[in-house]
Amino acid sequence: MSPTNQNRKPLYIAICTQKGGAGKSVFTTLVASYLHYQRGYNVAVMDCDYPQWSIYKMRQREAEQIERNSFYQNKAEVFFSKLNKLTYPIVPSQPEAGLQQAKEFLSQEKHIYDVVLFDLPGTVNNESVVQTYFSMDYLFVPITTSRINMESTLPFMISVNEMITMNQGNIKLRSIHPFWNMVASKEKQELYDYYEKAILELGIPIMQTRIPKSVRYDREQSIEGNDYLFLSTIFPPDKPLLKGSNLDLLVEEIITIVNN
């Protein structure tokens, strides 16, 4: 994957979970913003997580705040004059229509996109959503050591990986990659070692990057608009908050995986 490569179709990527609150939409937003604003890729987001449409609604909320807030107006003016391109598009869609709507969107766009990130429903409850998962190029899964998280996520990853392994050419999905999220500094290393061994024995490659537990991952635009922000569809994470977040390491690892 190289920025604005005109000779290939965009990669379809989903950051997915089978448990609410595990970071699916947050990481979709952060990865999209980092790739688009920091790494020079052209990104589009398909928000298929109906009826929440949290990413699409975040963009609307941020745009309204910019209109009312001089701090964000100045920030946007300075940032986009240097960036020399627009914000990435966010297209709301019903889950079962996401693939077709993405195809239609891309066919109508003048811009060439490198990556389309899909925010998909956490629960695979119908055949069309299952088909959408297997129509991605890559799946990335935030996981934690909590038993509840593992009990919902492991069966999902096992099923997906088995389908990839058995693939006879009828699915597009290349691989699934879990990564540790909300890692507490005092959490026992033995627990991670235990789960990593189990996951690797299943033939699922676990990512090296670990995302620390941090309130910065929830820091959006404020009403006052006079502080650093991390989670945004219009701006990349501010450097003081990016440091130590490991988000940059996660994105670089994703780039490495999709380029192999």
From TrEMBL:
Organism domain of life: Bacteria
Pfam families assigned to the protein according to its UniProt record, in alphabetical order: CbiA
Domain CobQ/CobB/MinD/ParA nucleotide binding: 13-217
InterPro entries assigned: CobQ/CobB/MinD/ParA_Nub-bd_dom, DNA_Partitioning_ATPase, P-loop_NTPase
Listed name of the protein: Cellulose biosynthesis protein BcsQ
Originating species: Dysgonomonas alginatilytica
